[in-house]
Every structure is written in C-alpha cells, then in structure tokens.
Amino acid sequence: MDTIVPKALKRGDKIAFISPSARLNDILPTPLARGRACLESLGFLVQIIFSSQATATIAESIRLRCEEIHAAFRDSTIAAIVCTIGGAHANELLPFLDYSLIRSNPKIFVGYSDTTFLHYAIQSQTGLRTFYGPSILTDFSDFPKPIQFTIDHFVHVLTNNTGMPVGPLPRSPICSNDHSDFFFGKTIDESQREFIDSPSWRWLRRGRATGYLYGGTVTCVVRLQGTHYAPASWKDKILFLESAMGDNMQLPYSVSQFRNNLVDLALSGILHEVRGLVIGRGYKYDTHMQDELASVIEEVFDIIVGRSHEEQLPILMNVDFGHTSPFLTLPINTLVRLDCDLDEFSVLEPGVRA
Description:
Blueprint: E1 14-18, H1 29-41, E2 45-48, H2 58-74, E3 78-83, H3 99-104, E4 108-111, H4 116-126, E5 131-132, H5 136-139, H6 148-158, E6 167-168, E7 174-175, E8 196-197, E9 202-205, E10 208-217, H7 218-224, E11 237-242, H8 255-268, H9 270-273, E12 276-280, H10 287-305, E13 315-319, E14 330-331, E15 335-339, E16 344-347
Parallel strand pairs: 1-2, 1-3, 3-4, 4-5, 10-11, 11-12, 12-13
Antiparallel strand pairs: 5-14, 6-16, 7-8, 9-13, 10-15, 15-16
GO molecular function, one term: carboxypeptidase activity
Keywords: Hydrolase
C-alpha cells in the first residue's frame, strides 16, 4: 500500500485531543488543562473531543471511542490528533474503525503505549504515516512545564515543511524515569518530577543498517503478530521496542517479562528478519536492570535467533522514547539508518509534507 504522508502543522492549526483507551479527562482536569495550555502557547488551537457519558457495556465503550476518533478525522479544521494517554483496551477498536474515512482525511496522528494497536491498524489499512510520540497527560502536562526536549522534537518533526529529512535523532542529557505524582492517585498535581542524568546510548551489536522504522510497546507488538494489522514481512524493517510499567504502575516492567517477549518475537520470525533493533529507555530501569536487559538481548540474538556477530545487525539501547520522559517523535515506517561507527540513529525522510 502506498504511504500517505500527512501535511505539516503550522501555527494557527488545530490539534484534537482524543482518549481512545484510558479515559482520564474528568479525573485529571488540571494536568489536561496544562497540556492544552502548552500546545496553545506554541501557536496551535486545541479541541478536546471527549464524552463524559458513562458506558455500561464494552459495546457502548467501543462505539463511543470510535465515534470520537472518526469525529477527529472527519473534521477538516483539525490538522493533527494527539492521544491524551495510552491504556489497556485500544485493541477493541480495530475491527470497528472506518478506515475509508481515515484514508480520505489524512492527518497527523500521535501517541504511544497501547496506541501501538492504532498505529498498526491505521498504517496497514490506510497507508497513513503515524507518529510514535508523546501523549498529553504523560508528556505535555508536567508541572511547571513540559521538558523542552520533548516539545522541540515534536515541533521539529511535525512542522517541517521544507522537504528536508528529520535527520539524526538527538539525545537528552537528563530524563525522568517516573511519571508525575498525579498518576498515582496523589491529590497534589503541582509537583515537579525528579530528573537524573540520562543513561548513555549503548550499542549491543555494532554495524550499519538502513530500513523502515516499525515497532512500539513490546507487549502490544507481540500481541499483534498473527493479525492482518502487522507487517507481512520484517525483512526491510528496523524494529523499535520499549517497555511499559509493571503490573503495579509504580514498578518497572521486569526483565524476565521482556525476555519472554523477545523470545516470542524470535519464535514468530521477526528477529530473524529485521535489519536492526532500537530499545527505548526503560521505565524505572536502574543501571543493574539496564545491564540485565542488555545481556538478555544479546543472548536471545546469539542463542535463540542465532544471528552471527559478523552480520551487520546494529542494536542500540537507551534511546529517548518509551514510558519515561523526554520523548522523541518517531515517524513510523520512515526510512532510518543505524550507524554504530558514527554513533548515529537518523531518520532519512521528512516526517510530514508541505
């Protein structure tokens, strides 16, 4: 299917907020208002598409969330759609989305985590390029303001109407490995996150490779295999993966679980085909967990997949995406290059068009 590249954002354009999975708008009105104010301060208009109507059944919930997505795509005054947050049930929407409507009204679509399901569905069924990037409540609602790195890259990728490639992806010197206090049921929503030095990029395998960027939250990527929403072949792909929180939101996703996911991807054949792998910074991963995950990745490729170290298969860890902040804006299914010798991860195409 031919790729549909969405039009670049410009000052004065309208951005819609939607909540296709978790429904937190009424629970977190102050952080949501901060996210709105942040994007308005950049010169954009904001429209929140959200119904507070209670839904007693799964069917009602699906209908309501699909209607909100369709409203955002149908409205010709809306130039971009950004998800407020991920969640747990975006996969329910896939059989019920109007892909013809989406294809006929292409526009920027941004989100991460559970939104992985929507990225795969929209890309596979319409050809529209979407963006794995920051959500409103997790990245644009920080007190007293969002991390500038996240804002700068969001603007760089989505407003570039020059036809120039996105280029080498930057790396932030600082990060926060935790979410804001308001996500944990604390009534104080005006506390600043703690920041630490970002872990350095880490090349687990050397090499240079070019391919099309595809991936998402690792659990969602595993669950999508075997569906008609996943790519039929990964032979031309650079895979990107990141982990969500643990079963308890205040705990990291265990390395043991990540190991299981990687083995599942190996058994599905994906890891035998991809040209490279990029791993996002892990939520609440300390140095020990980073080392542990690095060892797991190396052993899975050495033992389970059995790909030779002589092969050009670059593997890079600790890139600025995932369930931590700051967050790069990654155009999915764009041509990218991994180059260990240059210590570079570059997007070789523009994310949007004039």
